[in-house]
Amino acid sequence: MPLSPDAPRRPLRPRRRAPPPPPGAAADPAGFPGVRLSLVDDLEAAARFFQLSRNGAGHAADAPIQVLALSGGGAGGAFGAGALVGLTRSGERPTFDLVTGVSTGALIAPFAFLGPDWDARLADAYTGGYAAEMLGLAAVRPGPSLYPAERLAGLVARYVDEALLAAVAEAHRGGRRLLAATANLDAQTTCIWDLGAIAARGGPEALALFADVLVASASVPGVFPPKLIRVESGGETYEEMHVDGGAISPLFVVPEPLILRKAQNRPLARAEVYVLINTALDPSPRPTPLGVVPVLVRSFELMLRSTYRGALRSVAAFCELNGFLLHSAWIPADWDGANMLRFDREAMSRMFAHGAEMAQQGRLWRED
């Protein structure tokens, strides 16, 4: 139940954290070297991203590589989840060789990566009611964030288990790749995690780190607390503070340093890129009431849509530069039901059904 306005409140005392690694230091989670790319302008490091993609999955030499990028969008992830299930029902769902996810897109990504056999778990995650129970208005606890850390962590733990980890590891060993992005607040950089490489290590530590990355990627600042991830460098232990990857990269196909560059040696030649955006992009004109809250909400909505349109334009430029076919989808402007913070079972179920219907009727993808 929500706290009563008259209920006593304990003073907010942030726990003391270990310092982050020194600037420029190479750091990794203990026991997990080489499972991420932390990039700003280091093109030599960025080239490793293409090495991941170059490994393929047993394709014929001229077969296009199938790439799926899943964006953030909070509760709007129900649309993307429904779209994937609808693609399964239509028989038009590709087997994706490379799946990337940010925020709610990172939560969807393992199921998108594993394919139709995991549709039931994906559907339950967004429509089964547990997300509404964990993240509904009754779960709000005003403090450093709207929700306490255990709410999002509990949601992830319910759907990410040893069986999922083993399935991701198997697909990774077959040459496919699953990546998720977080924002490293200390370094102010995007951090791209190779979730398949983490899963392939196996064991409780791998499951814990896999879940931590998903939680970090979906930790919208102010809505959820940041995630501290313990790392090591030069024999010393540090803590990095990570939040929602959408704080820097609302979606990604390749790391930012490569987005306007031609793919070296054509490692992704004949790629087909699918971008699922879990929010609306088109303007929704309506009068804005005078008042602090309505103006803030509408301004945030405007900023969010503009940011996502810019990210999609960057992906489109990358695809045009490399001759890749781009398919994109987002919540249509004529559907008035999207709210990234409305974790309501009925609303999310309707959004899921809408995404599924569009996919089944062949109305999902816009060809660019």
TrEMBL record:
Motif (DGA/G): 244-246
Keywords from the named record: Hydrolase, Lipid degradation, Lipid metabolism
Annotated region described as Disordered, given as residue ranges: 1-31
Entry's Gene Ontology molecular function annotations: hydrolase activity
Annotated motif GXSXG, positions: 101-105
Motif GXGXXG location, chain numbering: 72-77
Annotated InterPro entries: Acyl_Trfase/lysoPLipase (IPR016035), PNPLA_dom (IPR002641)
PNPLA domain boundaries: 68-257
Active site positions: 103, 244
Gene3D superfamilies named in the record: Cytosolic phospholipase A2 catalytic domain
GO terms classed as biological process: lipid catabolic process
TM annotation in the entry: none
UniProt name for this protein: PNPLA domain-containing protein
Organism: Phenylobacterium zucineum (strain HLK1)
Lineage: Bacteria, Pseudomonadati, Pseudomonadota, Alphaproteobacteria, Caulobacterales
